[in-house]
Amino acid sequence: MEISARNGLKGKVESVKLGEVVASVKIKVDEPGMITAVITRESVEELGISEGDDVKAIIKATEIMVAK
């Protein structure tokens, strides 16, 4: 699949917790180490996401905050 986004992190699914409507997917990446994506349960099921899968977390943001 080709995509225009350039903010992608390759990682491995550490865990998937299914809720009624959404799912929490923990993805182990090199930096910052672990990220959590909250996506629809339907997306998890349609993509067949499960623990141990190699995935790419694509980050879409309309703003970035910087703190010091």
TrEMBL record:
Main subcellular localisation: membrane
The organism's place on the tree of life at top rank: Archaea
Subcellular location as annotated: Cell membrane
InterPro entries referenced in this protein's UniProt entry, alphabetically: Mo/tungstate-bd_C_term_dom, Mop_domain, Transp-assoc_OB_typ1
SUPFAM superfamilies associated with the record: MOP-like (SSF50331)
Any single Pfam family the record assigns to this protein: TOBE
Keywords (A to Z) from UniProt: Molybdenum
Residues annotated as domain Mop: 2-68
Membrane topology: Peripheral membrane protein
BP GO annotations: molybdate ion transport
Gene Ontology CC terms, in alphabetical order: plasma membrane
UniProt cross-references to NCBIfam families, sorted A to Z: Mop
Name listed for the protein in its UniProt record: Molybdenum-pterin-binding protein 2
Originating organism: Methanobrevibacter woesei
